[in-house]
Amino acid sequence: MQAAELRLLLPESMDGFRVVKLNEVIRNVDIVITATGNKNVVTREHMDKMKNGCVVCNMGHSNTEIDVVS
């Protein structure tokens, strides 16, 4: 992880939330919600690994967090 990511994740880990990378859990989750403001947070590779019926939604500031083009 980069330093900026660690600063952003620190409050969540202090509140008792387990912080994991998307690649580590993508096969097991039922819902993915983005709220980062970053580009391509969820990629085609992530979507290929998702369970059938997994719900993906974007709560961020732009429509580029989920890579729907590829």
Automatic annotation (TrEMBL):
Entry-linked Pfam families: AdoHcyase_NAD
S-adenosyl-L-homocysteine hydrolase NAD binding domain: from which residue to which, for each copy? 1-70
Q: Which domain of life is it from?
A: Eukaryota
* GO cellular component, as recorded: cytosol
Biological-process GO terms, alphabetical: S-adenosylmethionine cycle
Q: Which InterPro entries match?
A: Adenosylhomocysteinase-like, Ado_hCys_hydrolase_NAD-bd, NAD(P)-bd_dom_sf
Spell out the family assignment given in the record's similarity comment. Answer: Belongs to the adenosylhomocysteinase family.
What is the name attached to this protein's record?
S-adenosyl-L-homocysteine hydrolase NAD binding domain-containing protein
Instruction: State the species of origin.
Output: Timema tahoe
